[in-house]
Amino acid sequence: MTSLSLPDSDATWTAYELQPPTAWTKPSAPFTSRVAYAAAHVVPRALGDNTPGSSADIDWEATLAFRRHLWSWGFRVAEAMDTAQRGMGLDWAATQELIKRSTAEARAYRQIHRTGGLVACGAGTDQLDLDRVASGQAGLEQVLAAYLEQLAVVAEAGRPDQGRGPGAIVMASRALAQVASSPADYRFVYDAVLGSVTSPVILHWLGEMFDPALAGYWGSDDVEVATAEFVALVNDHPGKVDGVKVSLLDADHERALRAQLPRGVRLYTGDDFNYPELVCGDGQGHSDALLGIFAAIAPAASVALQALDAGDDHRAREILESTRALGRHIFAAPTYYYKTGIAFLAWLNGHQPGFTMINGLATGRSVPHLVELFRLADQAGLLEDPELAAERMGAFLCVHAGTRPHDPALGGLSTGDPTRGGSR
User: Fold this and answer.
1) Which of 54, 208, 289, 418 has the most CB atoms less than 10 A away?
2) What's the predicted TM-score (pTM) here?
3) Are residues 348 and 410 in the same domain?
4) Does residue 375 sit within a domain?
5) What is the mean pLDDT for each group of 10 consecutive residues in the chain (424 residues)?
6) Is residue 379 part of a domain?
7) Nearest Cα to 198, choosing from 232, 172, 163, 171?
């Protein structure tokens, strides 16, 4: 068995023994009972300059390999979204390149595997400098032009699914939240955006816990008033909205909204706290999914979705429940730093060469937080190679907690070969 020493909440060190790897089974066919997107992060070049304020320097092969990993588990990929650090380091030039490369990779994947390789890309307004956005109608026109520019980039990249499913995800806009003074201002922009698209899109409502700059979105701080505006927008554009992604971390609100949507419009849960019950559903229905947590728990989530396809709702719920503690920990407040946990788990599992992030965001979570993430991932069966994960965790602690493999501070525990980062 693989073990290493980990710090406890009282700063004492105790031996932790990892469980054997879980034998999750990949799907043999696309999911049929739910539409499920995993929002993917980007991997920076380990030796690149990704310090705060610098342009994103991306390891394209590792980034695309992670998309292939998600496709292999049956997921569609939600590309260039919040999880990819939109507004938190992924600049517009890198975003355009990401969209082009990811859609091309999806097309190549489908040619090889004859299935999978589905992707929808985020279109927002983050190419705008918020300090230079005008007020009033001129600012609304700037926001609209920015949306249309990004939608054109997504359209130009093409659709590897040959027109099946949405091609674009219309993201919430910090610039619009800044300039809008009423629900009518939101409607001016969104009516024009939806009027311009030639295929259905996903509308994304991202809550302020994910981005404080989006407080009062849709023109009201009252969530019920905002919801009414949102539903009216969807109703007024039949055929233009494939679905809505709601990231408010409020399961009751999501169920109520789901019941108000027009027939044929999906609700893609963005609730990384309450996804087990929302995806599995109840007598009133279920949500589909567009989740950052699905990128972290892809093997488990895939097997749960396979169980739903097979009609085994109990097994599906059991599996997703086993990941809930990990999801709540990764997305704990301040929620917008969940990206750090996603990248850390990807590194532990060997999906990127170093624990680095663009814009220096690897410092977004504390050492104790990441240690607990390690424990929870192991308990959920989501450390794909426990020995590698222990090796990397040990190395991380050597650097960030000042430990040494035979340090007496570790309670006298022998942790083996120093070159293996404290694992044995």
Assistant:
1) 289
2) 0.94
3) no
4) no
5) 92 95 97 98 97 97 98 98 97 98 96 94 98 98 98 90 77 98 98 96 97 97 98 97 97 98 98 98 96 98 98 98 98 98 98 98 98 98 98 96 61 36 37
6) no
7) 163
